[in-house]
Amino acid sequence: MDEHTMDKRLHIKTAGMREWVHQLAHYNRYEATPYEGLDYLFAQHDILKSGSWLDFGCGKGRVPFYVQSLYSLDTIGIEMSSVLYQDAMNNLMDYRQAFPKKKGSISFECILAERYKIPSDAATFYFFNPFSIEIFRSVIRNIVLSLQTTPRSAEVILYYPTTAYKLFLQGHPSFEMVAEIPITHLQVHDENERFLVYTYKQP
To answer: Which residues are registered as beta bridge partners of 52?
Structure first.
């Protein structure tokens, strides 16, 4: 199913790409995770069904909407761009109007990821290369602090992971890679098209 068809089903508009007018050293362009890729992740990996799902650099909100629509989980999108945040909020209004009785909440925060306070119930942390390794390290540090303060099962999911992200988590004492899911069936094969899943190693 193509991107626009699924967007229409969910009553949202998340397709397309957004480059920044001024080059940002630590923040990357907006590009949504393909629905086809998400479907493949969910078919190959049993995601956590408890706790909330956080999408860092959520853009217009595709992943939070899709996860909530499939699993009725509480989802939260973190986005630093006020323009993309407003797009996400417009999508949220249309989504709620279309599915008023859907279980699970969806919310968005317009804030720099490294300044966001991790909720005590957050369990899944999703990243599609939204920012530099420096910010990623800071966000992971905040996540670990939250998990240490309120012990719980948790996982980090990377889509199209950068070498820097992989090396950082590979050497991190609190996380262990449990799944590498290459997406080999796309029309244009790219060896970087993959998901990496890391679980939190509770002390």
So the answer is: 122
